[in-house]
Amino acid sequence: MDTTYATVSTKGQLVIPASIREELGIEPGTRVAVRVDGGQLILNPQSIEAKLRRIKAMRGYTAGGPSGTDILLEDRRIERERELRNDGF
């Protein structure tokens, strides 16, 4: 990723460069979450397009790992066995 610079105005305003706005789908009226993390300013667009991009980027993130359903079923099986033992079965 190339570094792009912008300057803060005397009113505290910052213009996001056009190339970045286009890449992130930021259009006039797009809400942007602003936070500080480790001394860095983080801008997070809140448009539907930006959210869909983040979801798409996460696809396959847990691929190859255990199934959430299988984990829950196994937990429930163990719990049920414990219940049966406590009831004298």
Protein model, in words:
With 89 residues, the protein is α+β, with helices and mostly antiparallel strands. The protein has a domain at 1-60: Ribbon (Pemi-like Protein 1, Chain: D). It contains 3 helices and 2 strands, in the order αββαα. The longest helix is centred in the C-terminal third of the chain and has 19 residues, at 68-86. The chain is elongated, with a radius of gyration of 24 Å.
Descriptors for this entry?
89 residues; Pemi-like Protein 1, Chain: D; 3 helices; two-stranded antiparallel sheet; alpha+beta; elongated
Question: What do we call the CATH topology of one domain?
Answer: Pemi-like Protein 1, Chain: D
Strand order of the largest sheet: 1-2
Molecular shape:
elongated
- In whole angstroms, the N-to-C terminal distance is 63 Å
Could you say what the CATH architecture of one domain is?
Ribbon
Count all strands and give the number. Answer: 2
**What's the tally of helices?**
3
Share in helix: 40-55%
Beta-strand content bin: 5-15%
Radius of gyration over C-alpha positions, nearest whole angstrom: 24 Å
Largest sheet: 2 strands, antiparallel
List the helices and strands and how they pair.
Layout: H1 18-24, E1 32-37, E2 40-45, H2 48-58, H3 68-86
Antiparallel strand pairs: 1-2
Tell me briefly what this model is:
The protein has 89 residues and is an alpha+beta fold.
